[in-house]
Every structure is written in structure tokens, then in C-alpha cells.
Design goal:
Layout (H helix, E strand, L loop, with lengths): L1 H10 L1 E5 L5 E6 L4 E6 L8 H34 L2
Antiparallel strand pairs: 1-2, 2-3
Helix pairs in contact: 1-2
Length: about 80
């Protein structure tokens, strides 16, 4: 049970794609960047817009990872409470 939770936490990833599909970001369970993928359209964006888009997308990926991490911990707590 505990080992499964540890494994599940280690496997947590958060993934987000910008609404326009230009950026995709993957983070691990602690919010550390794992990968960043940019579409060709990114080369046509002003630097300020691309920076903002990357930040927004990374924040969304981090939120997704946090939610997944909390779900794993909630499941563990429920299992321990049985």
C-alpha cells in the first residue's frame, strides 16, 4: 500500500497545452519542468507573448500535477483509514 503510493507519487506528471496549441509543458510531481514543446507558430509570436504563454502553460501543468499528487495522497489516507 505505502510502496504503491510512493511509486504513484514518483510517476505523477502534470501536462498542459496552451489554448492556441502553441505550447505544451510537462512537469513532475514537484512542479519541476520535464519537457517543453513549442509549435512552429511560436516563432511568429512576440517575445513578451511567448513568455507569458509559457508561464501560463507551466502554471497550468503544475496545478494538474498538484491535483494528481493530492489524489494519490487522498487515496493513501483512505486506505490507511480502513
Amino acid at each position: 500500500m505505502l510502496a504503491d503510493a510512493v511509486d504513484a507519487l514518483a510517476a505523477v506528471r502534470g501536462r498542459a497545452r496552451s489554448a492556441d496549441g502553441v505550447a505544451e509543458v510537462v512537469v513532475d510531481g514537484s512542479g519541476t519542468l520535464v519537457s517543453v514543446t513549442l509549435a512552429e507558430a511560436a516563432t511568429r509570436l512576440p517575445a513578451e507573448r511567448l513568455s507569458a504563454l509559457m508561464l501560463e502553460t507551466a502554471q497550468a501543468a503544475t496545478r494538474a500535477a498538484r491535483l494528481r499528487r493530492h489524489a494519490v495522497l487522498d487515496d493513501l489516507a483512505a486506505d490507511l483509514g480502513r
